[in-house]
């Protein structure tokens, strides 16, 4: 992992590299999504054969119900215990996040109420890659269940026994053997075999993220979530812990970006040695590539400069291993923040209850991570009595006249 001096030029380079990657992905994803929208199942199967599974047949598209039900017998009891703990914690957090119905009288005879209704159908995109991310099914489906979503469809390019066991545990029955931009296109526009959904959830690689953004004019999406980003911001700390967190996120993909931002050259060198040592103990994989090409150790001239970089980058994951509270107050943008040396980032990926579907590519400057609130619609209802009407009519007419909207004024005046 390279040690680099954090300069304005380097910061600009890192941000522009991320933007260029997005442009390339959008071009590739657009071709796939457009093809699936035009040709439906034929295009969906062709792209799946080309990119994921050369042996794919139309009959393989949906996982049989019996295979889903039997999956729990093909996984360990320890795995199922971990699933139960994770689902419990995710559910508890989702309950707190869910918007509540309310009703209030804003003035005599004028009552405004909120009704909270679940989205009718959603798609959960589960990254396949080297392994199915079973945790993502928990992170997307559990809040949906808490919200009361009646139809939940999950798609994954490599649905393994663990994923199917989680689906059975959550009583999910629509599991499709598809992934990539072609799966996003099918969920957004529908095919003969895949009914469209109202909203798509879940993280993915840059092509999946680009595809979600492309379809967002026609099908709602949660947020741009992928590729993975992680920053550890520290002036001091346990170098072994810091290196481990950086590598944990680096192993997601070759373009996963993991950074240590520090003012201490001594810490930078210690973490660099730890990264090299820990990589030597781990199986050779994508982390070896991403730490060299997509990540770095950045040495800033001051803590303020380091915080400015973090706020500008708006990382998906941020760790503050030595924070005393003062540092956290300077942070304005991040998908999630891990505070203290024991807050290992993978705990949040799996079992704390906080959602791991988080904004990337700078979107943390605009919104936070996935919430149960993303699975519902808040419908505002307005009940107005004769008394309430008379108390509002003059103001409504005056405002309508100021805008030159005389039919608006008439709709009020005609009721007098």
Written account of the structure:
This protein has 3 domains: about 30-105 and about 120-225, Rossmann fold, CATH 3.40.50; about 225-350, Rossmann fold (3-Layer(aba) Sandwich), CATH 3.40.50; about 385-415, no CATH class. Helix 9 (about 240-250) crosses helix 10 and helix 9 (about 240-250) crosses helix 11 (about 285-295). The strands form 3 sheets. It has a 6-stranded parallel beta sheet with strand order 1-11-10-9-12-13, with helices on both faces. Strands 6-5-4-7-8 form a 5-stranded parallel beta sheet, sandwiched between helices. The protein contains 15 helices and 14 strands. The longest helix is centred in the first third of the chain and has 32 residues, at about 10-40. The protein has helices at about 10-40, 40-50, 65-70, 75-95, 135-145, 160-170, 180-190, 205-215, 240-250, 265-280, 285-295, 305-315, 345-350, 385-400, 405-415, and strands at about 5, 100-105, 110-120, 120-125, 150-155, 175, 200, 220, 230-235, 255-260, 295-300, 315-320, 335-340, 375-385.
């Amino acid at each position: 992992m390279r040690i680099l001096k954090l300069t304005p030029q380097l910061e600009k380079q890192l941000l522009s590299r991320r933007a260029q990657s997005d442009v390339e992905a959008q071009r590739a994803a657009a071709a796939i999504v457009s093809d699936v929208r035009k040709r439906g199942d034929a295009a969906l199967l062709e792209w799946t054969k080309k990119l994921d599974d050369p042996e794919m047949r139309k009959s393989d598209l949906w996982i049989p119900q019996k295979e889903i039900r039997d999956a729990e017998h093909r996984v360990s009891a320890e795995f199922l215990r971990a699933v139960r703990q994770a689902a419990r914690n995710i559910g508890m957090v989702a309950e707190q996040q869910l918007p509540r119905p309310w009703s209030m009288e804003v003035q005599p005879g004028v009552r405004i109420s909120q009704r909270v209704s679940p989205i009718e159908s959603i798609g959960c995109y589960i990254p396949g890659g080297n392994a199915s991310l079973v945790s993502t099914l928990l992170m997307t489906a559990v809040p949906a269940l808490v919200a009361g979503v009646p139809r939940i469809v999950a798609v994954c390019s490599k649905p393994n026994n663990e994923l199917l066991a989680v689906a059975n545990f959550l009583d999910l029955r629509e599991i499709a053997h598809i992934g990539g931009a072609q799966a996003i296109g099918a969920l957004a526009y529908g095919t003969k075999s895949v009914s469209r959904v109202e909203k798509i959830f879940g993280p993915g690689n840059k092509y999946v993220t680009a595809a979600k953004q492309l379809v967002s004019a026609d099908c709602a999406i949660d947020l741009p979530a992928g590729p993975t980003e992680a920053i550890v911001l520290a002036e001091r700390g346990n170098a072994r812990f810091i290196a481990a967190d950086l590598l944990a996120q680096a192993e997601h993909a070759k373009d996963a970006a993991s950074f240590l931002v520090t003012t201490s050259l001594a810490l930078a060198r210690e973490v660099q040695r730890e990264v090299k040592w820990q990589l030597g103990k781990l199986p050779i994989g994508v982390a070896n590539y991403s730490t060299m090409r997509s990540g770095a150790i950045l040495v800033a001239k001051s803590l303020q400069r380091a915080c400015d970089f973090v706020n500008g980058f708006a990382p998906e994951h941020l760790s503050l291993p030595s924070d005393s509270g003062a540092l956290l107050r300077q942070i304005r943008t991040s998908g999630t923040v891990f505070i203290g040396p024991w807050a290992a980032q993978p705990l949040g990926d799996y079992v704390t209850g906080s959602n791991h579907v988080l904004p990337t590519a700078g979107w943390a400057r605009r919104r936070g991570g996935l919430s149960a609130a993303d699975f519902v619609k808040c419908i505002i209802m307005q009940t107005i009595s004769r008394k309430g009407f008379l108390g509002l009519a003059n103001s409504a007419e005056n405002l309508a006249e100021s805008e030159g909207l005389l039919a608006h004024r008439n709709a009020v005046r005609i009721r007098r």
